[in-house]
Amino acid sequence: MTRIENLYLLPIAEVAALIRKREVSPVELVKAYLERINAMEPTVKAYITPMPDEALSAAFEAEKAINRGDYLGPLHGIPIGLKDVFDIKGVRTTLGTKGAVDLMPTEDSTAASKLRKAGAIFLGKLNMTELAFGITGENIHYGNTANPWKRGHISGGSSSGSAAATAAGECAAALGTDTGGSVRIPASLCGVVGLIPTFGRVSLRGVFPLSWSMDHVGVITRTVQDCAILLNAISGYDPQDTSSADVEVPDFAANLDQGVQSLRIGLPLAHAWDILDDTVSNRVTRATETLAQMGASLTEVSVPFFSSIADAFSPIARGEAIVSYQDLLKSSASSLDPNVKQRVEMGLTVSTPDYIRAQQARSRLRQEARAVFQQVDLLATPTCIIAAPPYSTEEVKVGGTKMTLLDALGRLTRFANFIGLPAISVPCGFSEGGLPIGLQLIGRPFEEAEVLRAAHAYETSNQWRLHHPSLA
Amino acid sequence: MTRIENLYLLPIAEVAALIRKREVSPVELVKAYLERINAMEPTVKAYITPMPDEALSAAFEAEKAINRGDYLGPLHGIPIGLKDVFDIKGVRTTLGTKGAVDLMPTEDSTAASKLRKAGAIFLGKLNMTELAFGITGENIHYGNTANPWKRGHISGGSSSGSAAATAAGECAAALGTDTGGSVRIPASLCGVVGLIPTFGRVSLRGVFPLSWSMDHVGVITRTVQDCAILLNAISGYDPQDTSSADVEVPDFAANLDQGVQSLRIGLPLAHAWDILDDTVSNRVTRATETLAQMGASLTEVSVPFFSSIADAFSPIARGEAIVSYQDLLKSSASSLDPNVKQRVEMGLTVSTPDYIRAQQARSRLRQEARAVFQQVDLLATPTCIIAAPPYSTEEVKVGGTKMTLLDALGRLTRFANFIGLPAISVPCGFSEGGLPIGLQLIGRPFEEAEVLRAAHAYETSNQWRLHHPSLA
Known about the structure:
2 copies of one chain form a homodimer. Chain A is built from 15 helices and 13 strands. By secondary structure, chain A is of the alpha/beta class.
């Protein structure tokens, strides 16, 4: 066996080919990742609970299985990290908090169990915004996750560790969750790929809920192809998850190369792109023009509600968070980050009529979105309207408009959760400060394949994966 | 033209054939109904706002159209009543209440508009339980609707006028609404057919809401075939109704005669039939045995949640009613029936977490119901576990168990609204006191055709429509 440099930076598809040909062994790969984690963690703080022993012993098992010819597929022997909301049997689920939370799962979440069956190896539980209630990457208990591209800048959240670890070579890919942007925002800010499938596509069983009607399991990877590989493994109907949809699951990795010919891409310019940093605007515009050059058609579409759904989004997210965290608020309010506590407690002010009216508004917007998706196949926007700012930024000025950091990061991502649509963030360039910018593509319900195909076409036209973070 | 006796008691299908052959004219038919209304109303109190002038002038229009060969189909010239929650342009919508409500619609509800396009003639707006919040037929403002089978007995509600008028020959059929049984209960108690289609099948636009996530438009007719004819007219996607489902609409009247061969009918005996009046039990059992003799298979199924959904049903119904009636509670609380007011105000005690947890329970039960409907095609139960009691009954003793009248009437109907399933009540016999008993058949989402087919097979095996109420 030849020793390959920087094994821990290879996309899954490439390293899987090496494993399959037995040119790389899962043990060698896991060791490379464990070394990498040791080297990077003092800076990046992506892990809450590393699982080196379990990972190594799983790697030996995988190696044995592969050596005797029992190759399970492209995730066999691949080291994955999981945001610390996914139950793994026998490993504490912290939700990024401390205190009275004492969740010791007796079984795997469905997503973890499916990854295990596909041969994936768990490297550990990843850092996250406390209770998944925030989007910067700040965590007073386990440390602020660093943006691997620039020291002191936010990683984005709440799946902060998932994005930073994937970008920094501390795992080959990661699972995250996304209720308003928590997978796509950190993926965008850390320069990796982040996908949420349609609501109902991937089981939420064993994933601690934030907002039961808007939570999506998501994946963070280095390439779009890797996204498809992970999505293949974790998708499917789960009779134990009430939000699970019993719809056919295509092979997401099979038709990635079909290109974007005849794909209609809608640009909700006036409403979603209204306030943009010049660089973000240039990069994302260039990305959509690239797609047009490859055969897609671009249309400006009117989606007036795109960036104005906050009024209906907030009562739902907040009201449902109270149901999720009611016990926790009682038992360990004193140990919560005061900012997080304040955010959670805002849910107590949501009245039943407020919540119901928000759901009614949601129902109306779902129908309006449906009409938009009769004109176009995908919507394209920036993922975030700014690149990652330094930690402790509270307000930003974008295109002359002052706004909170939360609004700047989350204004274009909530839409997909609100309607339950699949969406991806794929890197499309860098800010002048050298920080990544993401292109968001949003698709129709259960049309992840179309989202992936367009993102893959764009990505492979640019060879983004040749770029690696400066801290890495 | 030969003068036909009791024109006003003929099923739509029969009178439509006569109209088409010009053996009966719409004017003659409307006049027969108007006479009948004049004769019956002092006793029955089925109408809030009769529309004799509009009906007659529409009848002249229909007659002219048919005479010049523009026959629109089986509803052309057919006199229909509408529960007073359906907007008709220029006619006050009262919701069965008085006081500050002053709803003068400037356009037809979608259902009314579709009926009009099919050539139907509106006889008037029908009596109902005030605000649709009750199931007896009591109304302090417009009079208690009488059960046409026995003076002093309840008609059932909230679509009291819809059922009583159809049974008493005061309209050929009626539209009603049903949030927990409000179409099927009065249909069952008045010995007529009552159907609710799948949630989303018929537009709710222009129908004053009670519970936006459980309201169903329904139809009340004298035969199952008439149900199919009405459903054909009012079904279909409505982009102006956010709950509307864009699914194909079959011809419900086309394949009614296919029989029940190979149909699997589930009997949730232990859970839904647990407490039954002996006569109700005998009649409904005999009805399902009739279906079995015609080729259906009967299976006892376990639906443990069938009669125990009240805990989750109530917070949703009550919480959503507050949103519907908030303005009304402010403006005209003093004129409300104190019982109705009290029922509505119970919604004020539903907290946001209560409501959300109820929706989560609903989501679980929807999934469990899905599993039940993999074993069977239809569920069969009594519609109500008792026949119509006298007005002012508050408690009843059924099979040795004391319960409120509300519970006795509504315990088996809420399930369909809770899950959004199509369900029919079809007459299946009489109590010892000579009051009608109903068989309820519940189907899979968007399988109204199967529900109608089974109900039609049963009905035509028994010639129920030869029976007419004693008051009539």
